[in-house]
Amino acid sequence: xxxxxxxxxxxxxxxxxxxxxxxxxxxxxxxxxxxxxxxxxxxxxxxxxxxxxxxxxxxxxxxxxxxxxxxxxxxxxxxxxxxxxxxxxxxxxxxxxxxxxxxxxxxxxxxxxxxxxxxxxxxxxxxxxxxxxxxxxxxxxxxxxxxxxxxxxxxxxxxxxxxxxxxxxxxxxxxxxxxxxxxxxxxxxxxxxxxxxxxxxxxxxxxxxxxxxxxxxxxxxxxxxxxxxxxxxxxxxxxxxxxxxxxxxxxxxxxxxxxxxxxxxxxxxxxxxxxxxxxxxxxxxx
Length: 286
Prior knowledge:
Layout: E1 8-11, H1 15-22, E2 29-33, H2 40-51, E3 56-60, H3 64-70, H4 77-91, E4 98-104, H5 105-121, E5 129-136, H6 144-155, H7 161-181, H8 183-186, H9 193-199, E6 206-210, H10 219-231, E7 236-240, H11 249-252, H12 254-270, H13 274-282
Parallel strand pairs: 2-3, 2-4, 4-5, 5-6, 6-7
Antiparallel strand pairs: 1-3
Helix pairs in contact: 4-5, 5-9, 6-7
């Protein structure tokens, strides 16, 4: 694959399924942004939630180096990826359809941050109609221990123990210095995803799915983030699965998870005439 391409998957529903669910209106395009190290076979299980509901789905997971290295050191590599993802909508001529996001963990949220910034500032995307977003197990802020757990899980068991410890030690020291100790200074150069979106949040509705048992993302981070968005007038709801691990809510409660996601999408569609949608993401630019 060429350097300027990204590895994504797009699925179109059959016409009968779309018509049955959306009855003549344009079916939504759901963009799923996977967690760090997510395999497409796992992300495809989530996209089936929406494919079976007659939606177009686009699946993408950012490479590990951009999540754990580029972002940690302030390189905005994901910004160009965000641009390419939005351009896919035009390539497949679905830019006039309602757009819906499903984001997983900090790995997906870091990329979502740059998508939001493009929708705020780039005029070429001003006609896109975003109707809502589901956020699963994110966002988290300044949690070095959680980041180490995520990296450990991502590296997997095949890597040698010595190399594992070296990589984890280097990562821990770097993140602690740049994102904790020096962050009061480095944030003026590169804000983290948590602060950037919290400062200028998108105005479309959000639904945060999380668990107080999550050992990677602190539930307090998500709850504080949700409260901040509410204070800024963003329509936001949340649900605590209480006992589930990081990005494991669907695996543990598939029917409940599916129903919540589909109901939220339907609610967003019902409230998604063109004028209302444009207001949602333009209001934050005033």
